[in-house]
Amino acid sequence: MSYKVTLISGDGIGPEVIDATLRCIEALGVDIEWERVIAGEAALKSCGKLLPEETLETIRRNKVALKGPITTPVGKGFRSVNVAIRQLLELYVCMRPVKSFGLPTAFHEDVDIIIMRENTEDLYAGIEFPENAPETNKLIEDMNAISEKKIRKGSAISIKPISKFASERIARFAFEYAIKNGRKKVSCVHKANIMKYTDGLFLHTFYDVAKAYKGKIEVSDVIVDNLSMQLTKRPKFFDVLVLPNLYGDIISDLGAGLIGGLGLAAGANIGDTIAVFEPTHGSAPKYTGKNKVNPIATILSASLMLKYLGEKDKAKILEGAIEDVIKDNSSVTYDLKPTRDDPTAVGTKETTSAIIKRIKELQK
Ligand code: NAD
């Protein structure tokens, strides 16, 4: 079977971790025709747009994309290209597995959690009003006229929309995933004790959807601050987590920390017909071109892509090879060593070569 997949290398360390991933896929012998397109800094330089329409169009056409991280300068007025891709393509699920791969120095062993982060709403919707702008002052005036609680004059404002529609489809996706993948429990993460209407709607909708899975899947809910503490103490207690966008973002990084860091944290943005696979980590600009960072998060994201394409056996070999290299610990990057300045750490290319060597051994 051959596939056509859109490829965006991204910024900073993106091109290096994407190259590493392509080498692994080639070693596996999966026949993929990559359609290379640009977004982020490269696109801004070549056509003056961070996210050219053509890039979106190829993803719509191919239905599947692999993407490196893209830089978003803080507070510079334009929104994240990564968030724009998710929103414009209606990729409403951000799925992030938090799985132990036998790293000797990881905080926990046998963690196996799936994070399902709602990807289109919440404080990530990008509806923001700067301090002291006329529209912000008008909004504050209007809000103060109808709300018992008052907003301080001169405040900046971010809006947190949560809809029944989006809450329902993420909850349903999580339950369906749990059923198809032999998962036992789905837990809703929220702060409905404080945000009664937004998080309250997310929580109630979750329980409405859960009714259809009664007797098949165990259901629970947990307040996000409590979850943060419990995850660090007993992550084995959790299975599938469903979260609104912002908590999902934060808990994804916490989850990455449990298993050994961002260098191991894979991700997939999934909609009804399109999926874009990318690591959880960003473009780590300070390491650009240094052959330093861990390519495994991106390689594992490609493994999620292989499963999505139906190449489950290839994905199993790839993950097996990664697990063996991590457990062996002699050919891993600095972030998977006991200390950051460990002289035995190898570079991006060398880790990739070790994974490829193991892929070939497992394929014999
Ligand atoms: P980051 O994830 O890029 O890096 C934070 C730190 O994590 C790095 O300094 C490094 O120490 C470590 N790290 C990250 N990836 C690693 C890897 N593969 N191997 C080893 N160590 C790794 O986060 P940041 O510095 O907050 O963000 C940098 C840029 O990336 C920002 O512009 C941000 O907006 C963007 N970003 C993009 C995405 C995306 O494309 N989906 C996601 C997150 C951040």
Describe this structure in words.
With 364 residues, the protein is α/β, with parallel strands linked by helices. The chain contains 12 helices and 12 strands. The protein has helices at residues 14-28, 41-47, 53-62, 81-88, 134-146, 164-180, 198-210, 224-233, 245-259, 296-309, 312-328, 348-363, and strands at 2-8, 31-37, 64-67, 93-99, 112-118, 128-129, 157-158, 185-190, 218-223, 240-243, 268-270, 275-277. The protein has a 10-stranded mixed beta sheet with strand order 2-1-3-12-11-4-5-10-8-9, sandwiched between helices. Helix 1 crosses helix 10 (296-309) and helix 10 (296-309) runs antiparallel to helix 11. The chain is globular, with a radius of gyration of 21 Å. The chain starts with a strand and ends with a helix. It binds nicotinamide-adenine-dinucleotide.
